[in-house]
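note to self — DONT lose this again. spent like an hour looking for the file last time. sequence + predicted structure for the chain T wanted, 290 res
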Amino acid sequence: MKRAKKPRRPRRWPRFKWPSARTLKISGAALAFAAAAAPVIYLARTGLPATAIEAYDRTVSRTIAASAQLGLSVQEIFVEGRGETPGADVLEVLDVSRGTPILTFDPALAKADLEKLPWVRTAAVERRLPDTVYVRLKERRPLALWQHHGKYALIGDDGQEIGGTDIARFGHLPVVVGDDAPRHAAGLLSLLSTEPDLERRVVAAVRVGERRWNLRIDAGADRTIEVQLPEINPAAAWSRLAEAVRAAGLFERNVVNVDLRLPDRLVVRVIREPPPAPPAKRGKNERKAT
């Protein structure tokens, strides 16, 4: 026997939900602003008299003021990602206060100005209607101290100088020297990090001929060793040096220079200890004490 088909239920149409009064006010203000602004743009393009454009400018100003009364005004400012950048500097750049019509706030201009601050690498700025300005910052990570023209400057992980900073807090960072050292510092430090024990002993790196690096390494007992990395494949050379330090105790000798520029060998220069002084000769008339 065939089963009887169940009768179909009548389709229910979704209930219409009226938008809230606040949403209607905001939408109305936005439409009013667009309606007032469009003629201004048209008049400017068609070259009509300036008096007419000024009249429409006044209309737009009144519309913006009305939009603030309807709720389109700044009440909150949220900033994320701020660590080193002073909050006062961010607020000064935004140049907006509570009650300012949010439609007059220009996110693109604020973004460009924020990215001029020393610590800010990138910024994202949004108007979140009806009343919030949202800012997300990505700050530079302090990478090294750059010795240049007899002075020190802090540089970030993007190779840019971080000005207006008390560098005394960053004295633990390695020092890089050379005109193009900031641009290549991140790559060098990434290479050095492959051998952490040896990396911790690097106190300075000097850029040579805009091609390669010389390193100054702390060997203990108030000694430093100069290590010459090659231009080609410095990572392999750095690994060879680390192995020589581990296996042969290279830095425990009187080494002053390690040349890694040859791919198949490691050239070491040492300071030989002076031979002990011979005992003083006694004179012919000198007698032994009794």
